[in-house]
Structure of Fe-S cluster biogenesis protein NfuA, 4Fe-4S-binding domain:
Amino acid sequence: MTQEEFQQVEDVLKKIRPALKEHHGDLKIVDIKEGNVYLQFEGGCTECPIVDASVKDVVDMAIRGNLSWVKKVEILQPRLHIG
């Protein structure tokens, strides 16, 4: 991922974050490869029943609607830390 790609996606996420932060959640960029953006919900969003396909669709539409180079947005499941 380039710094420019990261910053462009980050700028779009800044518009989405206030709504997520109201519920003690957030989104972080995990990786960007070949036009595919990989994100992960954090905080309250990881266990929230409201984070369903409709929220993921809003994130997808916001990013792909603002950044023509993005082919796909994928929300990754949080990794479990055991031990």
